[in-house]
UniProtKB/TrEMBL annotation:
<dbReference type="Pfam" id="PF13561">
    <property type="entry name" value="adh_short_C2"/>
</dbReference>
<feature type="domain" description="Ketoreductase">
    <location>
        <begin position="11"/>
        <end position="194"/>
    </location>
</feature>
<dbReference type="InterPro" id="IPR002347">
    <property type="entry name" value="SDR_fam"/>
</dbReference>
<dbReference type="InterPro" id="IPR020904">
    <property type="entry name" value="Sc_DH/Rdtase_CS"/>
</dbReference>
<dbReference type="InterPro" id="IPR036291">
    <property type="entry name" value="NAD(P)-bd_dom_sf"/>
</dbReference>
<dbReference type="InterPro" id="IPR057326">
    <property type="entry name" value="KR_dom"/>
</dbReference>
<comment type="similarity">
    <text>Belongs to the short-chain dehydrogenases/reductases (SDR) family.</text>
</comment>
<protein>
    <recommendedName>
        <fullName>Ketoreductase domain-containing protein</fullName>
    </recommendedName>
</protein>
Length: 261
């Protein structure tokens, strides 16, 4: 698919956690489709680097989605510097330590909820308020996970937070539909990022176990998620709202470990 098939020109897109991994790929893809991109991240230096790679039309902003004041300040700063926001991609997220429920520390669980779930709520609320006040349509794309669709052991924080994102997506979609604001989510599978690399190299999950569980037989790439984000943010998805789309190589469609046949 050519970059210019999906046209996001004259659109302003704000991407949280946009400096690295999937967020970085989303920023690059949206820019390739013509959007002006606000790369928002907890690490301003990394955000500046990614914005610099994109070049003209991209700017970096500091953001801690776990802090209400930071969310409001970032949204206002982006709107002032780049114009009213048309697209919000709620990508920022963190993982908990991979331990069973009985060993999980409540403070780790709460931090995951604050970033992965509360952060999506705060950013969506801030951006939607501006869209409604300006009488502008818009698109919000949330990042959930296959762990939000199917239970995984030792994921009682991360998985539950991502399941919450799925329901929040449906609720906000119903709430905002008559305002012209569409809200959808993506549920990535195992994507080739620092997180999946750490899980494999740290011995938490065997690479073969991942590959045998994925019908397509390989990890996804960050741009696999970015292309879907661009689609959901575009007019090509104009009659889609409240949906969560698994982008997982068939993980959710398949019920058990593969024999490798």
């Amino acid at each position: 698919m050519a970059d210019n098939v999906i046209d996001l020109s004259r659109k302003v897109a704000l991407v949280t956690g946009g400096a690295n991994g999937i967020g970085r790929a989303i920023c690059i893809r949206l820019a390739a489709c013509g959007a002006r991109v606000a790369v928002c991240d907890l690490s301003p230096g990394d955000a500046e680097r990614t914005a610099g790679e994109i070049g003209e039309g991209a700017r970096a902003f500091a953001l801690d989605v776990g802090q209400e004041a930071s969310c409001a300040a970032c949204v206002d700063a982006v709107a002032e510097a780049m114009g009213e926001i048309d697209i919000l991609v709620n990508n920022a997220g963190i993982a908990e330590p991979v331990v069973g429920t009985l060993k999980q520390k409540p403070e780790d669980w709460q931090r995951v909820m604050d970033v992965n779930l509360r952060g999506v709520f705060l950013m969506s609320q801030c951006v939607a308020r501006r869209m409604v006040a300006a009488g502008r349509p818009g698109a919000i794309v949330n990042l959930s996970s296959i762990t939000g669709l199917m239970a995984h052991r030792a994921s009682n924080g991360y998985g539950v937070s991502k399941a919450g994102v799925v329901m929040m997506t449906k609720t906000m979609a119903a709430d905002f539909a008559r305002r012209g604001i569409r809200v959808n989510a993506i549920a990535p599978g195992v994507i080739r990022t620092t997180l999946s690399k750490d899980l494999v190299e740290g011995g938490k999950v065997a690479r073969a176990a991942f590959l045998n569980r994925i019908p397509m037989g390989d990890f996804g790439e960050p741009d696999d998620i970015a292309r879907v984000a661009a689609f959901l943010a575009s007019d090509w998805a104009s009659y889609i709202t409240g949906a969560t789309l698994p982008v997982d190589g068939g993980w959710c469609a398949f019920g058990g470990p593969s024999s490798g046949a």
